[in-house]
Amino acid sequence: MGTPAQDRHGAPPPTACERLVLSRERLRRALQAGSDAAGDTTRPGANRSPSAWLQDLAALPGAGIVIEALRAWWAKHPLRLTSQVGVEAARSVLQPIARSHPLALVVGALFVGGALAWTRPWRWILKPAWLAGLGPQLLYETLVQARRPVSRPAGP
């Protein structure tokens, strides 16, 4: 058996400087592997567009009916155009602020989030949305899908 100053292979333990060099090398390799994995597009969900995610969701049983009903409802909704104009206006205003004063944008987002949590707009937005046609549209799409004949593959 070796002396306490030797490792199990009989070699003397590395000095502090050698351990530091080995540690730095391991960190360098780990960081390099992490940056390679970040650019990896073969991982599930890497660089996927929202439409691809929505298509995967629509492939679930019953979800396609709901998604199509939501799309049809939103296409006819009076707030659709207003929301699109609002998003474009906000983008044109907030992008220069984000470039020049990112901290101010974060603080502003904190205040907006606090105001949303305090006012709880989802309590009063969802009721008119339901009454404005989402409920009947979902029911209609469900009934239409239920009446469609099911195509069965031709068997032997």
Quick synopsis:
The chain is mostly helical. It has a domain at 63-147.
Describe the protein's architecture and organization:
It is a single chain. It contains six helices and no strands. It has 156 residues and is mainly alpha-helical.
Features:
156 residues
Helix content range of the residues, please? over 70%
Mean pLDDT: 77
How far apart are the first and last residues' alpha carbons, in Å?
75 Å
Total strands: 0
Q: Could you describe the largest sheet, including whether it forms a barrel? A: none
Structural class, from secondary structure content?
A: mainly alpha
Which helices and strands, and how do they pair?
Layout: H1 16-38, H2 50-58, H3 63-76, H4 79-100, H5 102-119, H6 122-147
Helix pairs in contact: 3-6, 4-5
